[in-house]
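[User]
Um, tokens okay?
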Amino acid sequence: MLLYILKRVLAGVVVLFLITVFTYTVFFVLSPDPAYMICGKTCTPDRIADIHEKLGLDKPFWEQIWVFLSGLFVGRDYGEGVNALHCAAPCLGYSFQTSQSVFEMIVQRLPVSATLAVGAAVLWLFAGIGGGLIGAVKKGTWWDRGIMVVALSGISLPNYFVALALQYLLVVKLKWLPFPTAVPFADDPLLWFQSYIMPWFVLAFMYAAMYTRLVRSNVIDTLGQGFIRTARAKGLDTNVVMGKHALRPALTPALTLFGMDFAALLGGALITETVFGLNGVGKLTADSITQNDQPVIMAVTLLAAALVVVANIVVDLLYSVLDPRVRVKAQ
């Protein structure tokens, strides 16, 4: 099992290295003039030349990659002499537009994105698994049809439409909820909950719909398997058959999706955070795209890729718990 874990971790490191090289190539090699793109259209030639020198763009490609990668572990300096800018480890880049370390910018906004992602994940897992299980058990009934209609709505309606509709109804017309703000939980727990409940629901709606359909179809397929008929023939309780024998294998594909979806959300829910004005990583990304702040865009891309790779490793390990066949292969 230890060898299996080491192989998965090593594969993850290789994937992250390749993603880093590819992303750096896109932003700093394929770009016509990275210093001009980072500085902006109103920048002076002297400022562009200064950024060009600080980034070391005149150095060989592999030397640039080495400096970037080493900066992740030991930090790096942009430029030389008294005008050098120090970026402490882990240095994901430096925003010349805001004069800030990109890592610090992300860390400042990460709590908002993490709160949004965790809350939405709890909602969509509860609704998706529950709805899918009820739909499979009550197949062909009004329960099943009603759940599928709601699921289809969740998949069809864009996030921004649901967000704007709920905001108009619950905040403007009925005044049941305040306009969402990134209130820390320690300052006011009630206002914190009221501020996040609507973004949680908006973000979870589409995912819950997809998971409902996935779990429903998997449970229906599993219920038709021979081992389920054997379990029923042995006189096992219905709850045991459903919970232990039917739901458990049906959750394996959902677990794969959950790992990637949750990791991607930690990298920022761009539309939801922008619509509700929550200052998370997603809104930071949207603002950086608007201002063409390429170091920030590149850092968020790498962060999202790293989270997805880590989530995949965790999911692979959880597979061995849920599915005995994977455990046997790993051994």
